[in-house]
Design a protein that fits this description.
It comes from Aquabacterium commune. Pfam families: Chalcone_3. This protein starts with a helix and ends in a 5-residue tail after the last helix. The chain is globular and about 40 Å long. The strands form 3 sheets. The chain has a 7-stranded antiparallel β-sheet with strand order 3-4-5-6-9-10-11. A two-stranded antiparallel sheet has the order 1-2. It is α+β, with helices and mostly antiparallel strands and about 200 residues long. It is built from 7 helices and 11 strands. It has a single domain, classed as Chalcone isomerase, CATH 3.50.70.
Amino acid sequence: MKARITALMTAAALALGALSTAHAVEVQGAKLEDTATVAGKNLVLNGAGARIKAVFKVYAIGLYLTEKKTTTADILALNGPKRFKIVFLRDLSSEEFGSAFLAGINKNLEKDEKTKFVNQITKFGDLFTEFEGVKKGEVIIGDYNPAVGTTITLNGKQLGSPLPDIGFYNAILRIWIGANPADNMLKPLLLGDKP
């Protein structure tokens, strides 16, 4: 009997231990896991926050890296897999979302970078013609896999084909962590500051 109680207690402790490692961060009601796997590598949640425009909650976003970094330069210098995960907090048309994304990229690129990435920017813009819009609670994930490039998925379905250059993936990240971020309150949160 004593051995059975000990076994039950051990099993309960192991179950609690498993639960304690499966954390999620909650941002404006959206859950973002504290880890992710991209290209077979374990990534950690570097930071998370919400995009607020005027008084409207637009989306929650988490940035995942192979190791935690606190500066834009260090994040962009990482060559391994990366992920951003967006959970929408309101409905948006694909035109609204696509326009904001492309404007954010353009605000953070120098003229020569725009020339270098013109084909990828065009292909990226085309992704937003593949869906009519997003609903509250839907998810877009942008992964960088060194073997493949950048892939974007909406609710698990890949949009378009991979975009190969890590520089272009970093151009996307600069929407939020670049010199001219979409949201000045969000940038420090993605760099690891606590809300």
